[in-house]
């Protein structure tokens, strides 16, 4: 598609958000790799274009806008704040996705300490309004529910931390949960290793970068985990119920209240969702027919930790979402604690792909 047409559509969407009171901002295309690696680990290398600058060191071509916008806000932004932006993001693609590695995005971000629930409703409703002519299906979820459920499990802190770290990797999460619940065997060779009186006593030179003390600590950690009681069948079933939820927003609250009776750790998150549902309704959103999925958002960017949403063309399942978004409070805390500062602020944002709005608009 002609880039000038995409840029024109992006400018139209940007103007819409600007009319809502958002400040237009820009972000450098080259971003310091260190920050992104700290946030996502080495996995980001498989999804980003990495190069080396003689002055800045290792850098990445901008894989998204949220991180640089958060950094900008934490450094100099007023509160509350609303930002909008447009430009290209660059992500390496595999043969399966068949998506362009260079894509235009238009975004809208809200930083609001006093009214985060209302901010959730605001971002979702504005994205919905600007996309209304395309008759898209909206899907929503809430990663805050799952995070709260994991943190409330009756198991060791190490196990909870491992599960929380892999919430955005569903297969790894399931494998860990099955193992911690005693439903899957230990990895091959681990049982024999831990059964030795002195696992470090081997007739071979040391291989790898870990020191003997680090290896010893790791072995003791594995022994403690092996000795821990399994996560109960009841808790696993409640987690499965939570992940399997597929209902309208108007109906799902009753199911969540039932789960919260036996899993009180999610009660605050359920209360938050109820308030958000009311705020969405006040914004004119038909919550009685708004889809909610308990596992939605688990394959998105790892900084989402609350309300998440996406808009899809039901007649074009081959296309990626036309728009996606979510809450990322933890990200502002991580970036706000850099350089010795300790700042954080609730934040939510969403992005629209103007190439898809053009494509769907032309075919409607």
From TrEMBL:
Gene3D superfamilies from the UniProt entry: Bira Bifunctional Protein, Domain 2
Species lineage: Bacteria, Pseudomonadati, Pseudomonadota, Alphaproteobacteria, Rhodobacterales
Keyword Transferase: yes
SUPFAM superfamilies: Class II aaRS and biotin synthetases (SSF55681)
Signal peptide (from-to): none
GO molecular function: glycosyltransferase activity
Keywords: Glycosyltransferase, Transferase
Pfam family, one: tRNA-synt_His
Full protein name: ATP phosphoribosyltransferase regulatory subunit
Organism (species): Aliiroseovarius salicola
Domain Class II Histidinyl-tRNA synthetase (HisRS)-like catalytic core: 10-169, 230-339
Domain of life of the organism encoding this protein: Bacteria
InterPro entries with a match to the protein in the record: aa-tRNA-synth_II/BPL/LPL, HisRS-like_core, HisRS/HisZ
């Amino acid at each position: 598609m002609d880039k000038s047409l995409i840029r024109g559509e992006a400018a139209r969407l940007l103007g819409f958000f600007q009319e809502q009171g958002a400040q237009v901002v820009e972000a450098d295309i080259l971003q310091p790799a260190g920050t992104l690696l700290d946030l996502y680990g080495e996995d980001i290398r498989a999804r980003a274009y990495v190069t080396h600058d003689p002055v800045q060191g290792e850098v990445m071509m901008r894989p998204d806008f949220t991180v640089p916008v958060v950094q900008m806000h934490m450094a100099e932004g007023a509160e509350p704040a609303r930002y909008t932006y447009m430009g290209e993001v660059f992500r390496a693609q595999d043969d399966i996705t068949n998506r362009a590695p260079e894509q235009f995005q238009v975004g809208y971000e809200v930083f609001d300490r006093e009214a985060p629930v209302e901010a959730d409703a605001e971002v979702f409703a504005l994205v919905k309004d600007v996309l209304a002519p395309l008759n898209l299906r909206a899907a929503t979820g809430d990663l805050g529910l799952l995070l709260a459920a994991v943190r409330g499990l009756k198991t060791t802190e190490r196990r909870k931390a491992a599960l929380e770290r892999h919430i955005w990797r569903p297969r790894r999460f399931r494998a860990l949960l099955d193992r911690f619940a005693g439903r899957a065997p230990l990895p091959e060779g681990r049982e024999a290793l831990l059964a030795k009186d002195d696992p470090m006593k081997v007739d071979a030179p040391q291989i790898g970068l870990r020191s003997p003390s680090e290896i010893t600590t790791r072995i003791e950690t594995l022994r403690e985990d092996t000795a821990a009681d399994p996560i109960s069948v009841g808790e696993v079933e409640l987690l499965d119920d939570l992940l399997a939820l597929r209902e309208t927003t108007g109906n799902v609250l009753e199911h969540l209240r039932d789960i919260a009776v036996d899993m009180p750790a999610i009660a605050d998150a359920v209360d938050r969702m109820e308030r958000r549902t009311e705020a969405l309704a006040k914004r004119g959103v038909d919550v009685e027919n708004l889809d909610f999925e308990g596992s939605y958002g688990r394959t998105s960017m790892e900084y989402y930790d609350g309300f998440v949403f996406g808009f899809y063309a039901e007649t074009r399942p081959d296309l990626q979402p036309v728009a996606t978004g979510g809450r990322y409070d933890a990200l502002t805390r991580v970036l706000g604690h850099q350089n010795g500062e300790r700042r954080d602020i609730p934040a939510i944002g969403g992005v629209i792909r103007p190439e898809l709005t053009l494509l769907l608009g032309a075919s409607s």
